[in-house]
Fold this sequence. Notes:
The chain is mainly α. The chain has helices at 2-24, 26-31, 33-71, 81-104, 114-123, 146-154, 171-174, 179-199, 208-238. Helix 1 (2-24) packs antiparallel against helix 9 (208-238), helix 4 (81-104) packs antiparallel against helix 5 and helix 8 crosses helix 9.
Amino acid sequence: MKTALIEFAHLLDGVRDIASDIDAHAADALRDRAVGRRHVTIQCACTVALSGYFESFLRDTAEACVTEICAKGKPFASLDQQMRDAHFEQGGLILASLARARRTNKVTWIKASVDDVAKRLHSVFASTNYQMVWEAFAETRSNPGPDVIGDFLRRFGVKKPWPKLAVKVSLAYKVSKTEGSLTEGLKSFIEVRNECAHTGRANVIPLPSDLRQYCNLLQSIASAIVAVLDDHLISLSKAS
């Protein structure tokens, strides 16, 4: 999971560099309307790209976490009910979607074959050496807002993903921020991202300072996700 976090941070640094470059050429944009239009296009495109980077991070984190859980060798029946449900329920949906995609030649982010997913779905009936369907834990609905992040963590058995008060295993607690500052910031980002993705630009164009703020927010949430899942894996190791 830490590798996914490091790779995500590198991508965010790339967006920060772009924001700095736009700032450095702000005078050029004032003199030349074509430069200004290009900056607007880049700023909107970066907002959409940030969402894609975040989705990739979530999927990479899900794969790494599920792989680590399977490597612990604990009986599948001893895992949290939420994890078992995600494996079967979401895994079944993924199997069905892959079967439809195979018939229609539809492109999907899931690279596994129908046979591979079916094999992993059944593998948990073995006492050891099973492989859960990690893709079942990685659903982002192409819109990784607060609800999606909450569902993502609950699939791993994290019961209260967001609240800070009295819950040490939560996102807000891990980054010493309020739940509202994280969720409202993420909602605002997703709203702008959706405008940019669906229309090519937003009513209020994200400025370079906004891009940096989005990067900082997403990096904080990503760091918190890894910290929460790390704690959850430790508690899983201690459980009988």
